[in-house]
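[Q] Does anyone have a clean structure-token version of this?
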Amino acid sequence: MATRMPASSRPHNGEDDGPVLSTRALNRALLARQLLLRRHRLGVVDAVTRLVGLQAQAPNPPYIGLWTRLEGLAIEDVAGAIGDRSLTRIAVMRSTVHLVTAQDCRTLRPLTQPALDRDLWVGSGSGKAVDGVVDPAELAAAARAALADTALTTAELGEALRQRWPDVAARHLAYAARTLLPLVQVPPRGIWGVGGRTRYATAESWLGEPLVAEPSLDEMVLRYLAAYGPATVKDVQTWSGLTRLRPVLDALRDRLRTFRDGAGNELFDVPGAPLPDPGQSVPVRFLPEFDNILLSHADRSRIISDEDRRRIFTRNGIVRATFLVDGFVRGMWALDRDRDGAVLRIEPFAPLGAADRAALTEEGARLLAFAAADAGVHDIRFAPPGG
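[A] Here you go.
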């Protein structure tokens, strides 16, 4: 798809401020960069690289996230890449577990470590429990020693550390260790359909290579813009969990193009990245829980309204699975399994037109074929709008 300026762009308060991008223009740009305008023929490692990881605190959402973006994806494609260590699960952006490539594990973790440290010591119950009682360097060294020969569950790691600090709860010690050290979640965690407790190993031992000593923050920001932009400084900070990134963007100006949104906020972007026509038609899409497209901007109006955002973000931190109609979140979905089969329940926020309902039914059948291939019976049920 050729890159061209959206038809809705216009000058804003002087020629140096850059053209204005409407909400629909930003929506189409985001969909294009997130591989959602059409399914792509990409390998899973290449796709995860392009997306700069997928949020993955639950095992299955990254599979659905890749299925909705890639042509012909099989569950085994993702599971195999986790098994051979091409992909791994580790806390990085937003101090949250992501599925990332081995290379990105080695570069993104040291770049996001300041945010992880901040989240541990500021407001964390575990941080409060160990602060002033446990020396962070000593804790990290003790955890690394405990993990030297084997992967450990959270409970096992915590109990091993309690041998040194018996007055601190094991869960607090384990959480602090996971924050201070680059610990990956090893298989079978993350393998579709396989249960079991989370087990940790150090990233260095699991990947057989050290973390990158001096990774480039500039490169991380440029990759974010390619995958999510155009974006404000606050957007970059929301995605990464890092703060004080204005000087980084300012230093990159000569390598970037700039726009404005409808509120006059400055948007940064990488040259050559897609800016489709805002009027371009787009297919319906099912997104998994925690999909990055809903979590990676301070202003998320380019993909979901504030009212609908409150519907899908729960108080206990769950981000529900959603579907897109005309590129915007228009409802939620859930897949229920029982002995008789699998039911895809679709809950629209407002009445759907006949064409959109038919498109969701067709795409829902594909989702069931992927996520519930072993079910004897498939069914799709629509809830009343706004229920």
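[Q] Thanks! Anything notable?
[A] The longest helix spans residues 102-121.
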